[in-house]
Every structure is written in structure tokens, then in C-alpha cells.
Amino acid sequence: MKATKHAVTRARRGRWPVRGVPLAVAAVAVLVCLGLALLTGNGGGAGTPQPAAATAAVSAAATEPSAPPGSGAPVDAAPSESPSSAAASVTASPAPTATPTAKPSASTAAPSPAAATGSARAVTSTASLAGRIKPGTSYPGVATSYDAADGNGACSFGPSGDLMVAAMNHTDYESSSACGAYVLVRAAGGASITVRIVNECPLPCAPGQLDLSHEAFAKLAELSVGRLPITWTVLSPGTAPDTVSIRYKTGSSQWWCGIQVIGHRNPVAALEVRSGGGWRRLSRTDYNYFLSPDGSGCGGSIRVTDVYGEQLTVDGIAVKPDVIQPTRVQFARH
Prior knowledge:
By secondary structure, this protein is an alpha+beta fold.
């Protein structure tokens, strides 16, 4: 307020010399107006004309109280520094997030000099990976039986020495998504077995139905029973092969290829190939091959994801049709 009074006094002296009481009354009125303007924050009143010197004095008075005592710095210096600090904070904050993301990428992308090598990386989200068959879920259904012959089936794995296998009903087979899954089957009487899905049970097999090999069904009940009420759950067993293998389909080349994953502990949710500096997801067929119709990625790095979200990256798999090529990686047990 002292600064305001002093500035107005200077303006009054420069333009209107003191000439008696009327002028003194006018000066008091001006001071009152200026005081009200400062209190209401109107900076001198936009609707009331003020002398130039008085306006400058009001601006100076409004600025001075907000400056830090004894700082000597202009008040508008604080706002100019504040945005800079905020920008630095926003720029720096993504850095911690980028660092852990970069580490898995480097480990999975770096090829090993040995052939058919691989690396693993865990993914946290699994909500969109599992299809109809979800880990940790118990499904009610009925068991029937069929002659599995050599253990081959719609999943195209080929003959198997282990005939503890089963065919998944058409609905839950879900375009070969169930292929290779290990399933724990429980009968109402308490008996249980573990089978591997190698085939599809076509309609009218109902959702939840498993068509077991004769050998597997006989572990639960007499074959003469025909239809047996059961519940079943997808497993992540410890008895799976040590590593997964990759096989290219007959006729595969650099122009077209089909890729199959064999011996995986957990159901496979997706397969991608390295193409154009990124990963390209391939579509899956009913006969359990992932196709690259234009040859993209054929013979390059392969990335396989299971229903738990774990990813295995494999390098050094050449395009050799009908050859089972082992890797050095396997999905973790859950």
C-alpha cells in the first residue's frame, strides 16, 4: 500500500498541483478507488479510466506483494521455471519403464551361434491368450472311447508310442487350439488319468466331451460302459519333453511355409515369425500348422507363446520339410 500511495502522489504532483481542499478531496477519492481495486483484484478497474502513472503504480503494487521477500527476482520468473521443471519430470518418468522393457527384447532377439537355440520371456497378461480352454478351470463332460490306432490324429503330430491320448470335442478343439494340451480326466468314482490331445472328435460330440483312446478309457471304467461322466482340467505337467521342437510342413519353402510346434508342455496360443523388422503373427489351421502364405519369416526367427503368456524365441531353424528339429527351450511348469 505504501508503494501505491507514493506512486499516485508522484502522478498527482506531476499533473495537478495542490490547490486547496477540493483537490485534496479528489486525491483521497482516487486513493480509495485504488485501494478498492487492489482488494478486488481488478488491477485499477477496467471500467474506470486512470492516469497512466496511476495505472503503472497499481501494476507495481499488485506485483510486489507476491515476490518472495528479499529475493529481488521478478514474480513472473516462477511461472517460467515451473513449466520447465514439469517438462523435465514428464520426460524422465518413462525412462524407468523403458529399461525393463528393453532387457527382454534384447535377450529374445539376440541369436545364439548354435543352431536351433532359443530364449524365454514371461508376459504378465493372459486374459486374451487362452481360448475356450482356460488353465485352472474344471470342465464337466462325458468320456467316450475310440480306436486311436498309432496315436496320430487331426493335430498332425504323427504316430505316438504313448497311447494315453484323446480327441477333443469339435467346439473345444477350437481350430486346433487344444492340440498338444495335457488334460487330467477324473471319473465320478474317483479314478483319474492324464491324456494328451492329439485328435478332434467331430460333431455331434458335445462341448465338454472327450473321446479317449480305448487304452485311456479302460483306466477309468470298462469299455462296455460306453459313456462315462467326467470332469477334466488342463495341466502343465512335469513329465513333458525337455524341449519343444519345430517342424516345417511338406512343401514349405522361402515362398510358402507351414510351421508346427511339437512337444510343448502348455497349450500354444500363438506363433509369430520375424518379418520386416518386427513380429508377424501367423494364422492357425485345423490341422495344427501356422501358415505363412507369402513366405514371410520362413526360415527366420520364430516366437511361440503359450496360454500362460510365456514366450519362447527360437533361432536357427532351417526350412526342412517334415524334419522335427529340436530346440533348447521349453515352457515353464505352472
